[in-house]
Amino acid sequence: MPSVLPDGEPMPEDGALPATALAGAERRPLGFYLHVPYCATRCGYCDFNTYTASELRGSGGVLASRDNYAEQVVEEVRLARKVLGDDPRAVETVFVGGGTPTLLAAADLGRMLGAIRDEFGLAEGAEVTTEANPESVDPRYLAELREAGFNRISFGMQSARQHVLKVLDRTHTPGRPEACVAEARAAGFGHVNLDLIYGTPGESDTDWRASLEAALGAGPDHVSAYALIVEEGTQLARRIRRGEVPMTDDDVHADRYLIAEETLSAAGFAWYEVSNWATSPAGRCRHNELYWRGADWWGAGPGAHSHVGGVRWWNVKHPGAYAQALGEGRSPGAGRELLSAEERRVERILLELRLAEGCPLELLRPAGAAAAARALEDGLLEPEPYGRGQAVLTLRGRLLADAVVRDLVD
């Protein structure tokens, strides 16, 4: 969750949505994202809306504390119930992200999940995920999470090489994420993800292969691999600007992606989104698929984004301002935008083209359709799905996904 919020129109104090947003809601999946904005330390590459202990004094002297944070999220879940009214949908996915959610007690994460269960109900077979820092969990904590109802967990591994972790300012030691996978399995988690980052300054192809092999050796059923993006204002960006560490280029990122695809495919993983691989359809992250398919989700927590029926809104950034709004009985929403039909069309192309199923060619305007035909000739789109009316990226197309998307959206 990037730390910079967009502009938009003011959010009503009661959080009310226009009637058009709720029309036909019963036909759309509903998920919840719960943001935990706390971190023990700030990683050098991170631009997310997160806070360490020294950064937590909020607006008007309101003290934002981890101790009462779960109750604040519970209050926003209750607000969601009021705003969505008699919406009959049970929640299909819950994702707790951060920050470091596992800095909170497992009982607190359970209380937040319990509020969703009480107010909306969880659909049969609902996916309930939390992110976790490998150094912030142990077997007992994982068992408590599982007992609370979590059935999927995502560990931030990033790399198996100590010198790479040092550049990223990651605090865990090599080998700990792999051990966490075994501990999560023993606790009863059916689905486990490891997050990896490639393209860190100083990382070699050999380092990257070692990270992939270490991840696979741990036995997850899902792996996410993201190219490092150097965000302005981060410690890493300042170090690169001072010449302390080198910067990798797009060609290096492309080589690392090809290594990931080769290694993961050989191990029985299949890509289902440009940066995500799973051993089976059941191993896919269903919550992220809600985002990529434009379904409905409510994001609770400071800076969290939500989307319901073509209305997108976002909460105030700072935990202190968030706590103050809820304490005064107001929505913590900072702003919103009502997406036009054209904006929703463009977003469908942007998001669905990244999926293995692709996006329907019927979404394209004439210029975009012509661009798709050229992409097919250039080997960027798969011929067989194209014949069925779907634009699906080839491996080479995945390497150039951003450029293909730009062409297809006119």
Automatic annotation (TrEMBL):
Statement: the UniProt record of this protein carries the keyword Ubl conjugation: no
GO molecular function: coproporphyrinogen dehydrogenase activity
SUPFAM superfamilies the UniProt entry points to: Radical SAM enzymes
Chief location of this protein within or outside the cell: cytoplasm
InterPro entries, sorted: Aldolase_TIM (IPR013785), Coproporphyrinogen-III_oxidase (IPR034505), Elp3/MiaA/NifB-like_rSAM (IPR006638), HemW-like (IPR004559), rSAM (IPR007197), rSAM_sf (IPR058240)
SMART domains attached to this UniProt entry: Elp3
Residue intervals of the Radical SAM core domain: 24-270
One Pfam family in the UniProt entry: Radical_SAM
Protein name, per record: Heme chaperone HemW
Organism: Streptomyces iranensis
